[in-house]
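Holo prediction — adenosine-5'-triphosphate.
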Amino acid sequence: MASIALREVGKSYGHHPVLHDVNVDIRDGEFVILVGPSGCGKSTLLRMIAGLEEVTDGDIRIGERVVNDLAPKERDIAMVFQNYALYPHMTVAENMAFSLRLAGAGKAQKDEAVRRAAAILDLDKLLHRYPRELSGGQRQRVAMGRAIVRDPAVFLFDEPLSNLDAKLRVQMRTEIKALHQRLKTTMVYVTHDQIEAMTMADRIVVMNGGRVEQVGAPLDLYDRPANLFVAGFIGSPAMNLFEGEVSSGDGAPAFRMADGTRLPLPEGAAGLQPGRRVTYGIRPEHMELTEGAADAGAEVAVVEPTGSETQVFCRLGGADAVGVFRDRVAARPGDRIQLRFRRERILLFDTATGERIES
Ligand SMILES: Nc1ncnc2c1ncn2[C@@H]1O[C@H](COP(=O)(O)OP(=O)(O)OP(=O)(O)O)[C@@H](O)[C@H]1O
Ligand SMILES: [Mg+2]
């Protein structure tokens, strides 16, 4: 077991910088997920923790040790990749024991480690099968098994589920989370899928363009995104974001969109300077259909029922918007609907800096 500390970590390939000033503290036993769009530097950072990439700037600590100059095998880590090719000519048991065999472990030690990993992963009855005789999910579990037998201080995962079909991915998500709850070993997991990150992580590190945008518990990021990038990246469908400005007009201050549409400001935003350029954020499920007093009208473009809820894509004040409603919605394209916003859920961002405005 070990904590991990990333201190002002930077990485360049030649003169091309890909990571800038990364500072993250991962607690012993924590499950941390690095998430962000393709090319933002997630795999590079994970591979630097693993010792597969050199550290250009800063320090990486695992436990008490600075590991910058330690070889991968000296770091007490095990890594599972997206392409976790199993050895086709070896059984499940032999695949799992392979790294121990390389390390010179005796038969009794190998058997015991494989038995323990197989019990954890529910592979007991498959130990004598070959990879071609397994389903995709079972193969994935064998790949995890190879990591578990080594009993490392830290597990590193790089998109281990992306080769699986959608249903299996959802199932493996639950299995990995349960695995972490049993092992309680520090895990760092990379994905570009924000739902995977939200459902599994103790804490999420949101990355963008080689920088850390925000670190926090899943629901903290969801409820209090630090900036427009995190607001738009976490959540599906994405948060509605409208550009406009604070307007004093006549009466109470409000938010005004380019076409003159006025939306209510959240409580605590009364002190904002009139004329200030702000971006207005409201999540799709925080808009409610109403027949009474409405905050905004919208014109329906597309209605998508999923069975448990209905997603309504619409035009609101000249912008695209989407609402998610628990109930079935009778509206059809072209209809006008009336919306009320949950006041305590409205977020405001400074349009120039992208930072959320605390209110
Ligand atoms: N060996 C390399 N030489 C030069 N540039 C590289 C090298 N490896 C990665 N890069 C660049 O570093 C950046 C980060 O790549 P990285 O693989 O870490 O992204 P990622 O966040 O894992 O993306 P994805 O979600 O697509 O896997 C990219 O711009 C990539 O082109
Ligand atoms: Mg990657």
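READOUT: The chain has two domains: 4-233, 240-350.
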